[in-house]
């Protein structure tokens, strides 16, 4: 069936995002625009018509990955699990996604780091996207029972500050495992899942827990 104009534009946009993601991961940020367009079976004019610039196309690739991650986090919010189970579910969800395409995920992670080092525009955009992911995780964890099991009125729940601490640690931990897996050409997914699950110990345990341990308290 023939596509209308809006459908054709969305089809072209999707094709360019897919080709750009693959070529950026395999060839780096210097991949020519015409190579991206050719891989999508389009002209370079389509790139500029839909995205405006190569930089905006790269940003769109990065943003799409972040927004998919946020959707995954939001889906976890439908669970009534306590913090330990949520941490385990999140880590396994991330592991499943990375294991499907480790090389591409790892290379795009490195690419973003390099872009942030060299380009103030990408540094600002990366910070914005990090905040979006962190906010989604804070929303997921805040108010959850600290322990799995009983959900009565005496069950201590995760505070906003505690959720923020766990969210920042969780993002750094999963990203660190991804980057450390590059020399060995594979990520230690089991270790990552275990490490993420153990972030529950960043905060107090049980209804009378004492919250995060500060440096001064150690």
**Alpha-carbon distance between the two ends:** 67 Å
Strand proportion, as a percent range, falls in under 5%
Shape verdict: elongated
CATH superfamily of the largest domain: Tetracycline Repressor, domain 2
Organism: Streptomyces yaizuensis
Keywords: DNA-binding, Transcription, Transcription regulation
Protein name: TetR/AcrR family transcriptional regulator
Pfam family, one: TetR_N
Structure description:
With 218 residues, this protein is mainly alpha-helical. It contains nine helices and no strands. The chain folds into two domains: 1-52, Arc Repressor Mutant, subunit A, CATH 1.10.10; 55-217, Orthogonal Bundle (Tetracycline Repressor, domain 2), CATH 1.10.357.10. The protein has helices spanning 5-27, 33-39, 44-50, 54-76, 83-100, 102-118, 120-141, 160-180, 189-197. Mean pLDDT is 87; it is low at 206-218.
Structure summary:
By secondary structure, the protein is an all-alpha fold. The protein is 67% helix and 0% strand.
Sum up the structure in keywords.
218 residues; mainly alpha; Arc Repressor Mutant, subunit A; Tetracycline Repressor, domain 2; 2 domains; 9 helices; 0% strand
């Amino acid at each position: 069936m023939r596509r209308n104009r809006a459908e054709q534009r969305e089809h072209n946009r999707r094709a360019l995002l897919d080709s750009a993601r693959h070529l950026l991961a395999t060839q780096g940020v210097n991949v020519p625009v015409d190579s991206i367009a050719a891989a999508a079976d389009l002209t370079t004019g389509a790139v500029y018509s839909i995205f405006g610039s190569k930089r905006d196309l790269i940003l769109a690739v990065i943003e799409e990955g972040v927004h998919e991650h946020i959707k995954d986090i939001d889906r976890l919010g439908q669970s009534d699990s306590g913090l330990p189970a949520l941490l385990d579910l999140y880590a396994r969800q991330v592991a499943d996604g990375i294991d499907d395409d480790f090389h591409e995920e790892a290379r795009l992670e490195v690419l973003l780091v390099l872009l942030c080092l060299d380009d103030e525009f990408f540094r600002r955009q990366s910070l914005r996207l990090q905040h979006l992911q962190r906010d989604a995780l804070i929303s997921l964890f805040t108010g959850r029972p600290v322990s799995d099991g009983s959900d009565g009125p005496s069950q201590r729940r995760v505070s906003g500050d505690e959720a923020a601490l766990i969210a920042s640690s969780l993002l750094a931990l999963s990203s660190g495992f991804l980057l450390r897996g590059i020399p060995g050409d594979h990520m230690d997914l089991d270790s990552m899942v275990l490490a993420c699950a153990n972030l529950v110990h960043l905060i107090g345990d049980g209804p009378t827990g004492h919250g995060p341990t500060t440096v001064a308290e150690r």
